[in-house]
Design goal:
The protein is an alpha+beta fold and 228 residues long. The protein has helices spanning 8-29, 44-50, 95-118, 132-153, 161-167, 183-209, 212-219; strands spanning 4-7, 34-35, 60-61, 65-72, 77-84, 126-127, 130-131, 180-181, 224-227. It is found in: Membrane.
Length: 228
């Protein structure tokens, strides 16, 4: 018989697991890992003639994507164009970034799997007599290690030609040059920290759902058990 067990700690762990998976996925897909050096407007002369002033824009570069601004001279209007610069895996700008993509993808796949499974922990608390919380916590720890490896390798690719074209000639491995870090990189770091927090907190979720009070409610014949 399925017993639906909802506790404050198990629900918090489930929500946090889902948030972490989405945060890492969004960061990985974003082009805002590096913010390039400021580039002048291509229609600067036209702006001077009309008496207007346009601030230089800063393109962004991700692991496999980029955002840049294109000018429509006829209408003196600018649009931001975002999309992948690499049509396939081999075209990713650096071997280090290829390794980063692999490690991050593996970590995110594990996190998404755990996030999916965590939704069902209200009804299923064990798999082959092993606590599903402990299994998921172990998987989250492994995912965190993959994410750390990816984030360590990522700055080693800052010396590739693609990064130099965005960050200037002084960019090299672990040196940003004229670039700055974008929100996606910080989101990936924050998500990695939260991944390990989730891994630790899974033990608390397991304790909460297997407490004596929960067992008493089960013995009383209750199928829906909600505890703080």
């Amino acid at each position: 018989m399925c017993h639906v067990i909802v506790t404050c700690r198990s629900m918090l762990w489930t929500l946090l697991s889902i948030v972490v998976a989405f945060a890492e996925l969004i960061a990985f897909m974003s082009a805002d890992w590096l913010i390039g050096k400021a580039k002048p407007s291509s229609s600067e002369e036209g702006d001077n003639r009309t008496g207007g002033s346009q601030e230089p824009y800063r393109p962004t570069l991700g692991i496999y994507g980029r955002c840049t601004r294109i000018s429509h001279m006829q209408f003196s209007r600018r649009d931001t164009l975002c999309g992948p610069y690499a049509e396939n895996f081999s075209e990713i700008a650096s071997g280090f970034w290829q390794a980063t993509a692999i490690f991050l993808a593996m970590g995110i796949m594990i996190l998404c799997t755990v996030a999916f499974v965590s939704v069902f922990t209200m009804c299923v608390q064990s798999i082959m007599k092993k606590s599903i919380f402990n299994v998921c916590g172990l998987l989250q720890g492994i995912a965190g290690l993959f994410l750390i490896l990816g984030l360590i390798l990522y700055p080693a690719g800052w010396g590739c030609q693609k990064a130099i074209s965005y960050c200037g000639p002084y960019a090299s491995a672990y040196k940003l040059g004229d670039c700055s870090l974008g929100w996606a990189f910080y989101t990936a770091i924050g998500g990695t920290v939260l991944t390990f927090i989730c891994a630790v907190f899974s033990a608390q979720a397991e304790i909460a759902t297997s407490s004596d009070k929960v067992q008493e409610e089960i013995e009383e014949g209750k199928n829906l058990i909600c505890l703080l």
